[in-house]
Amino acid sequence: MTLVVASSAKKEELGPLLEIARASRLVEHKTSGDDAERSKPDPDIVHAALGKTRCRPDEVVMIGDTPYDLEAARRAGVRFIALRSGGWHDDAFPGALAVYDDPADLLASYDASPLSAA
Question: I need a surface site. Which of 24, 34, 49, 112 has the fewest CB within 10 A?
Answer without folding.
Answer: 112
